Amino acid sequence: MLGAGARLVGCTRYCTEPARALRDVARVGGTKNPDLEAILALAPDLVIGNAEENRAEDLGALAARVPTLVQTPRSVPEAARALAALAARLGLSGAAAPFVERVTSLLAEPTPANGPRVYYAIWRKPWMTVGAGTFVADVLGRCGAQPMGAAPGCPEDREARYPEVTPAAAVEAGVDLVLLASEPWAFDAAQRDEVAAARLFGDADVRLVDGRDFCWHGVRMAAGLARARAALMS
Question: What strands lie across the sheet with 177-181, from one edge to the other?
């Protein structure tokens, strides 16, 4: 998107887009178990990490050997600033400007009022949702939703960023809408139908959503935020 694809020398095995551009890029392990020596052997000018996805010890080990940029935005405005900072680091501020401007424009739009109380499911065994201070919760809030994991009295663990919240607890808290995300747990149509038929969340509407529109920051936000809002309002 920014025009720096040819400069990418390595990525994790979980990096999926853009698929064609990543086809011949070296894979250097997973987010939690990267092959540090393989990364260093690629002689990168910059390593990009995320504190939620990558272990602190791995990021520290890399930072001691090569320039490392760790970005872990917890809100849309923070993510917009992070995108601008990354682009500046790469000398691509001009290419990133339209994406940053689009996100800024979306942030200026009025937030829908009295939105649904939403359980955004990220995992099923056990059931987990998003808590306060997470990027997904901020996206939901800016779409007019009230994320159940950030609501007083709902999570069993108020300190967790991704709390375990049972369907029964969500029902008791008055959930209106359940969003089954495509990642990290790969909810599909069969699981949606199963959850709805069993009425695990009572009378709440149960929908599938593309998790990338709710949790991927960077250039995807420019289109993803609008799709996330549309998914909630449909």
Answer: 146-147, 117-121, 177-181, 205-209
